[in-house]
Write a structure and sequence with these properties.
The protein contains 3 helices and 2 strands, in the order H-E-H-H-E. The protein is α+β, with helices and mostly antiparallel strands. It has one domain. It has a two-stranded parallel sheet with strand order 1-2.
Length: 42
């Protein structure tokens, strides 16, 4: 399956706002689909 960051790599980076608990729970998904992350307001 083509990931978001692969699909748009020639156009722009794909980022996400991520809550602290997702850094462990969803780490693989985050690394697979996004080039950059920023802290979400909690």
């Amino acid at each position: 399956m083509l990931t978001l960051k692969q699909a748009y790599k020639d156009y722009f980076d794909v980022g996400a706002a991520v809550a602290a608990h997702w850094l462990e729970e969803g780490a693989e998904t985050i690394k697979t689909h996004f080039n950059s992350i920023t802290a979400e307001n909690e």
